[in-house]
Amino acid sequence: MRVLVIGGGGREHAIAHACARHGHEVLCTPGNPGIAAHARLIDSPQDTPTLARLAQQEGADLVIVGPEAYRPPAWSTSAPPWASPPSAPPAPPAASKGTRPGVRRSCSATASPPPRTTPSATSRPRWTTPRPSRPPSS
Predict the structure, then answer these.
(1) Which among 88, 80, 72, 76 is positioned nearest to 56, based on CA atoms?
(2) Across-strand partners of 63?
(3) Residue 88 and residue 21: Cα distance in Å, rounded?
(4) If pLDDT is split at 50, 70 and 90, which confidence band does 105 have?
(5) What pTM was estimated for this model as a whole?
(6) Are 100 and 107 in contact (CB under 8 A)?
(7) Which SS3 state, helix, strand or coil, does residue 2 take?
(8) Which residues have CB under 8 Å from 55's CB, separation 6+?
(9) What domains appear along the chain, each with residue ranges and CATH number?
(10) How many CB atoms lie within 10 A of CB 9?
């Protein structure tokens, strides 16, 4: 399978490495020197219509778009009719990812158990309660 990876960061490097490790032919634009070890780098303008044409010209079976700058709505409004829509839904706002209510919402949405709560820094955990002193054994 011929895979075109769009982007040049660490995420795209990992994607290119994984695809190459599984025997796929990997193309990348713009890429970086680390990605060049796993993929053929293509120098191309980074606007959406040009990237869509590049994917068609190179015969890419799969296009993986790394940077968020190329994701919908820009990609979906200018993609040619033969291009399939993005396979991943847009990510939820980043502000809710690490908050306790956000984690609980995502756990309940996926039917997975919520994380166990731990004592806060101001509370005194039970295991540090002083124990009564014992007389020395003889």
Answers:
(1) 80
(2) 4
(3) 23
(4) confident
(5) 0.54
(6) no
(7) strand
(8) 4, 63, 83
(9) 2-71 (3.40.50.20)
(10) 13
8 Å CB contact between 8 and 35: yes
With pLDDT > 90 as the criterion, what percentage of the chain qualifies?
Answer: 32
Tokens, residue 85: 């829509």
Tell me the pLDDT band of 15, cut-offs 50, 70 and 90: very high
Strand partners, 30: 7
Cis, bond preceding 132 (omega within 30 deg of 0): no
Give a three-class secondary structure readout of 65-116: ECCHHHCCCHHHHHCCCCCCCCCCCCCCCHHHCCCHHHHHHHHHHCCCCCCC
Could you report the per-residue pLDDT of 41-95, keeping only the tens digit for each?
Answer: 999 888 888 888 999 999 999 988 886 655 545 455 555 555 555 555 555 555 5
CA distance 1 to 108: 37
